[in-house]
Specification:
- By secondary structure, the protein is mostly beta strands.
- The protein has one helix spanning about 150-169, and strands at about 10, 15, 20-25, 35-45, 50-55, 60-65, 65-75, 80-85, 90-95, 100-105, 110-115, 130.
- The protein has one domain: Jelly Rolls (Sandwich).
- Helix content is about 10%, strand content about 40%.
- The longest helix is centred in the C-terminal third of the chain and has 18 residues, at about 150-169.
């Protein structure tokens, strides 16, 4: 994430042997944040989730199983960057408020996990922003041309192109 210095990539210490792996995602005192809750999503290959964000939450993300192409976008500067997250490299990314993030599954199956830190009430969908995954203003280079999208992300895609076509005409 060299292009977005406010976004931090971490490589935690871990132990591996013939039984598998052991690694710590977070412990009290890390990052000087108070985490409110955790979320996990499971997805199959070519599922693209996001790009979503809000104005108040920090997110510590990682991939517990499989491999994902994780993207962070600064909607103000229009700069984006990516990192591959996997159960093999055990990398984690700390995303600050006001940055959008999304991911695309590049393995057959993946388990994505994030810890949220925010003040006040939970920043649910109505408090979040959604950016079109293929907005030409950002020109994010995804590893898939025809991703599997949620209805929310499909709607953002259609809304964006409807607005864009009206402006062009």
């Amino acid at each position: 994430m060299d292009r977005l210095p406010a976004v931090k990539v971490y490589q935690p210490s871990h132990f591996s042997d013939h039984r598998g792996d052991l690694w710590t995602i977070w412990k009290e005192g890390d990052h000087n944040l108070k985490f409110n809750h955790d979320k996990v999503s499971t997805s199959k290959k070519n599922v693209l989730r996001g790009i979503h964000g809000d104005d108040k939450s920090w997110k510590l993300v990682t991939c517990l199983y499989g491999e994902i192409y994780f993207v962070v976008v600064d909607p103000v500067s229009k700069i984006w960057d990516y990192v591959i997250l996997s159960d093999q490299n055990k990398k984690m990314v700390l995303v600050p408020p006001r940055y959008g993030n999304g991911h695309c599954v590049i393995s057959d199956h993946a388990v994505f996990m994030y810890k949220w830190s925010y003040h006040g009430s939970y920043p649910d969908v109505e408090d979040q922003f959604t950016m079109s995954w293929n907005d030409p203003e950002f020109n994010v280079e995804w590893p898939v041309d025809n991703p599997i999208l949620s209805s929310r992300d499909k709607k953002q895609y259609l809304d964006f192109y409807e607005r864009y076509n009206k402006e062009v005409k």
